[in-house]
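Continuing the series of single-chain predictions for the mutant panel. This is the parent chain; the variants come on the following pages.
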Amino acid sequence: MNKKYILVILLLFLFASCTSDEVTKKDEADYDVEMFTPELKVDFKEVYSWINLMPGPDAQARFNITGEFEIFQTSDYDFSKMNLTLIKIFQDKELIYSIKPEIRIDDKRSTNESKFIIFGTIKGLLPDPKLNTEGVIDAQFIFTEDDELYSHLIKNVKIDKAY
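Parent structure:
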């Protein structure tokens, strides 16, 4: 009976340690940022976010995000079919916005091995009450190529103010 008691204790210890590892892995993932595979070879040249506070008769504060990146060809995907379909904005590990960006392919800077893309919001979005305009955001860029999903996360993007 002593051996059974020791075996039960060892199993409980093993189960408890597995459970705590699972929680740690969840914590390391930060928050509900979806990651997709395979790897995406992309070089973000600039990502800029700001609150437009320009005065005017119909002026209303607006959140904007713009930038540019270059996506490169790999054996995992066809970069010519790759599209930026969604930008998710997080702050303090909470989803604030899901944005369908306006995109433009810069043919002058694109090559046979890469595609240069400029993205942004045209009129901006009304500031969400949860958005701390004094803080930073994390931006998850979600790409599609046929039925495949790809993701790239950029952390700690400063929110500027335009007056």
